[in-house]
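Retry 2 of 3 after timeout on previous attempt. Resubmitting structure tokens to design endpoint.
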């Protein structure tokens, strides 16, 4: 029974991580730090390699079951499965809710995101040192990359499967980094609203399929969802490892680059709101109070969260 309580607690920690990962500006990695599983998560992810995966897959043969179990234990497989279940269920639930809010209250929703991002940037900047030309150049590069992408991606990239694949790789790899939000990077790439809508339609399609109303709606969402997940797997074991390598070799400059991405991404919610206002004919002057109030709420949420997370160590 004690084991069941431990797994239930781990699942709930996954729910907390997934809820954070689903909103731009709050990092699931930060939540992992707060709930005390970050080091175990990194150890489990970095333990996964092609050799261990192959040993696990060969467990379909009875003679190989002991070795497959050993490999599964080496990557802390039960931990990853239970945590992943919590993360996945929370992401689906939160994105479905966010999709509704983006449809009905886009100004306030993006205002809340703006506050999340701004407060996160303010918190993270306190740990960045720009005292060398190399670090200043890295910070400038990160800011410009996010700032320019925030204006370009939402209107020009579209949501083809290759773009969705790259978005999945980038977003999921960011999940293991404290302070950097995968959903924020989806906003920068112009894919956040598309993916939240896709997940919401997938849930509706699954419900329709289970209730005997046909599978067309579900099948429509399978290609982008699978493509995003495959991209996420690739990103987790390539981009994330590359970032960790960069942090080990040039920690201060890499950190300056990553935090500056968050600062540059402040443009993204403003661009999205401007597009919505242009469609509706409403002016920024009329929408500004709603946007500002929601931004204050988002910033307050991050500041309260930061108070409990203490100092983030990279």
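Retry 2 succeeded. Sequence:
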């Amino acid at each position: 029974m004690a084991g069941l309580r431990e797994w239930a607690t781990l699942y709930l920690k996954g729910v907390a991580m997934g809820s954070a990962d689903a909103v731009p500006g709050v990092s699931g990695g930060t939540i992992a730090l707060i709930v005390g599983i970050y080091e175990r998560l990194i150890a489990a992810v970095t333990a996964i390699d092609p050799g261990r995966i192959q040993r696990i897959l060969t467990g379909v043969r009875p003679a190989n079951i002991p070795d497959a179990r050993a490999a599964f234990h080496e990557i802390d497989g039960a931990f990853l499965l239970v945590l992943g279940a919590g993360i996945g269920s929370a992401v689906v639930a939160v994105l479905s809710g966010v999709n509704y809010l983006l449809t009905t209250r886009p100004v306030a929703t993006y205002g809340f995101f703006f506050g999340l991002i701004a407060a996160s940037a303010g918190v993270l900047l306190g740990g960045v040192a720009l005292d060398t030309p190399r670090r200043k150049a890295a910070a400038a590069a990160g800011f410009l990359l996010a700032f320019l992408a925030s204006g370009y991606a939402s209107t020009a990239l579209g949501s083809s499967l290759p773009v969705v694949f790259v978005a999945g790789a980038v977003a999921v790899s960011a999940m293991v980094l404290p302070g950097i939000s995968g959903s924020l990077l989806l906003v920068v790439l112009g894919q956040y609203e598309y993916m939240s809508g896709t997940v919401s339609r997938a849930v509706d399609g699954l419900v329709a399929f289970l209730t005997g109303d046909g599978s067309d709606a579900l099948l429509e969402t399978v290609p982008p969802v699978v493509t995003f997940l495959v991209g996420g797997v690739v990103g987790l074991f390539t981009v994330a490892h590359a970032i960790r390598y960069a942090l080990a070799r040039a920690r201060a400059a890499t950190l300056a680059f990553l935090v500056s991405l968050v600062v540059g991404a402040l443009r993204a919610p403003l661009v999205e709101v401007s597009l919505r206002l242009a469609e509706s004919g409403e002016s920024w002057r009329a929408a500004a109070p709603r946007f500002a109030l929601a931004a204050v709420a988002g910033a307050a949420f991050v500041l309260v969260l930061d108070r409990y997370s203490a100092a983030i160590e990279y």
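Attempt log closed. Residues 2-309 form one domain.
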